[in-house]
Design a protein that fits this description.
The strands form 2 sheets. Strands 2-1-3-8-5-9-7-6 form an 8-stranded mixed sheet, with helices on both faces. Strands 4-10 form a two-stranded antiparallel sheet. The protein has 228 residues and is α/β, with parallel strands linked by helices. The chain contains 6 helices and 10 strands, in the order βαβαββαββββααββα.
């Protein structure tokens, strides 16, 4: 497929934002300025005394909207998402299409760790057994009903719960998305310590970088053996 073809594609992108968090809303909308490939919609986040439940209800609300809109694939974005320098429209679109063909339920733009096992799918995409952080997720429609029908408990968190809900999850590398540290978290108390989020992403990045390096070495070795 020609990369030029992707200029005609717009992915339904649902941005979860608490109505009173105007600072976050302004920040996230700036991230999508000049990126018409994202068909952005603000979803007013559900308020709950437990932030983890509020986020899960917001994700379910978003999925319900996507079903009503008959979306085949969506991007769910939290309002602390920021693009990294590695973001490229055409590369993302290729990965979204390819990951669909590979049976992915979730394709993450970047994660804050949480994994124990990693399998390279390609040089720039890894299967992971678990992940932290849900600030940028491509979700395929085959996974919608599982999300809506899942029994989310009061002590569950969205990232850990989604990790357990499906084995078919992948992450792009290098990350195209990380979380902006606003100095507070509406979801997890431990993330209210300045620098925690940034450290999580840096550690995950370094670890996946090692896997990518080994994958490149392996592929190069195989290529040399085939040419002998």
């Amino acid at each position: 497929m020609s990369l030029n073809h992707f200029s005609d594609i717009m992915i339904p992108t649902y941005i979860i934002n608490l109505k009173h968090r105007e600072d976050r809303r302004e920040s996230i909308l700036k991230e999508f300025e000049g990126k018409p490939e994202f068909d952005c919609h603000i979803v007013e986040a559900c308020i709950h005394e437990k932030g983890n439940i509020g986020l899960w209800e917001s994700i379910k609300k978003t999925v319900s909207i996507a079903i009503e809109n008959e979306d085949d694939v969506i991007i769910i974005v939290e309002d602390d998402h920021i693009f990294t320098e590695h973001y490229d429209r055409d590369v993302l679109m290729e990965h979204i299409i390819e990951s669909n063909e590979q049976g992915a339920d979730i394709l993450a733009g970047g994660i804050g760790g949480g994994f124990r096992f990693v399998v390279p799918v390609t040089e720039n995409k890894f299967w992971i057994n678990h992940f932290w952080c849900t600030q940028f997720m491509v979700i395929y429609s085959r996974f919608f009903d599982q999300i809506l029908n899942a029994d989310f408990g009061p002590e569950d968190t969205a990232d850990n719960f989604l990790s357990q809900l499906t084995a078919h999850k992948m992450v792009l590398y290098p990350f195209i998305s990380v979380q902006k540290d606003f100095g507070y978290s509406d979801i997890t108390e431990e993330n209210n310590v300045n620098g925690n989020i940034e450290e999580y992403f840096k550690t995950a990045d370094l670890t996946l970088g090692i896997y990518q390096k080994k994958y490149k070495q392996f592929m190069l070795m195989n290529k040399k053996e085939r040419t002998v």
